[in-house]
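Before a colleague's protein record goes any further, I have to sign it off. Alongside the sequence sits a line of tokens, each denoting a local backbone shape. I want your independent view on whether this chain really folds as the tokens say. Where you disagree with what is written, explain briefly why. This is what I was given:
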Amino acid sequence: MTTTLVINYTPRKGSYTKILFDEFVKLAKKKTKLIHLDLSQTPPDLLLTENLKLIMEWNGGKRDFSELELSVLSNHNGYINQILRADNIVEAFPIYNFTLPATVKAWIDAIIVSDKTFSFNPERGFTGLCKGKKALSIIVSGFDYETSNDVKEYGSSTIRQNFDFIGISSEQILAFGVDQNRDELTSILDNAKSEIKKLVDSWFPNHIHSNNFHHQYQNADKDI
């Protein structure tokens, strides 16, 4: 039975992103084990002086960290371990000011770690270490960027680039224009739900799982 890490950043009451996230959960919960991460409830640590110093030391080859240093890195470790243990990753978030919400970007910064999710060799360059996994991004925006020639968003390309970097093949379901095209709101959401159903049927054909939705924040192991 596969394990699917489902991540949402949907702090706003009445969130359309949450509606689509819940649709995936409803359709997938009997077909795969779901591990839930709500980034608005368990936000990643920002890269600040102390933890950034330790992460840079790890990337530079240091592996012998003290208990105190490991405690500083525990937030990052938890997110990394969730990615490594999952077969599939689903992340749902809105576009804020043309890009990812800061909390979602902080999650990306937490999981992009040398010798965990990617490696580097001077001759071969960068290699993603999470190959064989699949990812879906459910992205919602009030503005319809798909029909605009002048205004662009960078959230969808940023999340795709980072999944690609660590070796994960990703797909995207975009529900844009939910505020701009208010008279088409029902159609926009229904189309997105239809895409979600097609993806669930494709990812989990003929899978039935008796266990339901597990809320879990995976505490870090001793290693980074």
